[in-house]
Design goal:
InterPro entries: RmlC_Cupin_sf. By secondary structure, this protein is α+β, with helices and mostly antiparallel strands.
Length: 449
């Protein structure tokens, strides 16, 4: 089999459509810059595809000497699936829905589950539970179809899964300047919130603000409260680091709340009481919004926020890593200093209201579409099915991210379980649609070009 070379498959298809024929295999060698590895490098990849342009299937693997030899020596009569199996790669639908294979990232407050995350801490994949291909390889092969020609700007889809432990499961109280994000609550842990109502720290408390003459005085008081808390926090963390090292654990390794509680016996009771009192006073400056399953929280830039323990959410966000941490009730493992002063210089002290959700119902009353957020770089829609029905995913000018929240549903007749997700290419084949049974809920995100 002949192996062609090109910048990517999009470029090859645009210039060499005559090379693609039904039931014939085409092999393509291309260069991929793995910017997300601890030591970035250029990787030579090999893709083998089959089918017409609008019904394309294929697989991707490293272009090792063995892989290149296998492909060159294989006869033209070999099937795509047989060759993919030989090289240990999943066959992907390059004209329809591609299943995302998430990666779990541990956090001091719990974990994040990344469906489209691509960075040094981990990379999501595509394929299935048995075989998967790194997602960035697919984006490098077909950047136009699957990433609007901006592979490093793919909308980030992930799950926030905080521990149900009070304090230990609370996220950083942080603010973003460029990153826009929206949360959809999918579960509230009853052990943490027996009544099913969780919460999120969101901006500052209006009643507390009213105690001060102006916002400058309010910010100064809050800054003093954070400074007082940080002083105690660092004393406790320094002592816990000593215990960690004695146990042979690296000081910036996340550990379970039960382990921390056990180690707290080494901390003076007076210091523990100071930590609790100062933390409660610091938190009194913030506002807590109640959250139940199904709630949506739009997080604008410059609004400090912190999802609370035991509240599980699906999150869509701008794919940039930037934040300013105002405070945290544990040791911050990823940076030495907090960003309180820098954040306070830019935050919006007034808590912005949550925007209304616009709802549209199809003619048959089967599918209700709700636009839950409309950011300048992407939008997110929620589909709800009072009756069984379908929603067409084909024909969009951009890629789409589909996340099943609950209920029975399928994409391209492939069942999609709760918290399973798919990436749909731009101008997907005409038959690509999502089928929702009664009561099913789905989220769909689309970038804006």
């Amino acid at each position: 089999m002949k192996i062609y070379s090109a910048l990517n498959l999009d470029t090859f298809l645009a210039n060499s459509v005559q090379q693609l024929a039904a039931n014939k295999l085409l092999a393509l060698q291309f260069e991929h810059h793995a910017y997300y590895l601890p030591e970035p490098k250029t990787q030579t990849l090999l893709a083998v595809v089959s089918g017409a342009v609008d019904n394309l299937q294929g697989f991707i693997c490293l272009a090792t000497d063995d892989a290149l030899r296998v492909v060159r020596d294989w006869s033209d009569s070999v099937t795509l699936s047989h060759l993919a199996q030989t090289l240990g790669a999943p066959v992907l639908d390059l004209a329809g829905a591609v299943a995302l294979v998430p990666v779990a990232i541990p956090k001091p407050w719990g974990r994040e589950v990344w469906y489209t995350g691509i960075e040094v801490r981990g990379q999501a994949g595509v394929g299935n539970d048995r075989l998967s291909t790194p997602l960035p390889w697919l984006l490098s092969l077909l950047p136009g179809r699957f990433a609007c020609d901006r592979p490093q700007e793919l909308t980030l889809l992930k799950i926030l899964d905080p521990l149900p432990d009070e304090v230990f499961g609370d996220l950083y109280f942080e603010m973003h300047e460029r990153k826009q994000e929206v949360y959809v609550v999918t579960h509230v842990d009853k052990t943490a919130w027996p009544d099913g109502v969780g919460g999120i720290r969101f901006g500052f408390c209006p009643a507390k603000r009213a105690e001060f003459g102006d916002d400058a005085s309010f910010k100064a008081a809050y800054r003093n409260a954070v400074s007082d808390y940080e002083q105690v926090r660092r004393q406790i963390d320094a002592r816990l680091d000593i215990v960690k090292q004695a146990e042979g654990i690296e000081v910036n390794t996340p550990v379970s709340p039960s382990q921390v509680r056990y180690w707290m016996r080494h901390i003076d009771l007076d210091l523990q009481q100071q930590e609790q009192a100062r933390r409660q006073y610091m938190d009194s400056f913030t506002q807590v919004l109640p959250l139940v399953v199904g709630d949506v929280v739009k997080v604008p830039c410059y609004t400090p926020h912190s999802l609370l323990h035991g509240v599980r959410t699906v999150e869509f966000q701008t794919p940039v890593y930037e934040r300013k941490i105002l405070a945290f009730a544990q040791k911050v493992l990823t940076q030495v200093e907090w960003d309180t002063d820098a954040a306070l210089a830019k935050i919006d002290v007034a808590c912005p209201p949550q925007p209304a959700i616009c709802a549209f119902q199809d003619e048959e009353g089967a599918i209700i579409r709700e636009q839950i957020v409309d950011f300048d770089d992407f939008e997110v829609w929620r589909l709800r099915a009072p009756k069984a029905g379908s929603y067409v995913l084909a024909g969009a000018d951009t890629y789409q991210l589909v996340m099943a929240v609950s209920g029975e549903q399928s994409v391209d007749q492939r069942l999609l379980g709760a918290e399973q997700a798919m990436l749909i290419p731009a101008r997907a084949r005409q038959g690509t649609r999502i089928r929702l049974e009664i009561g099913a809920v789905t989220l769909i995100a689309k970038p804006k070009q």
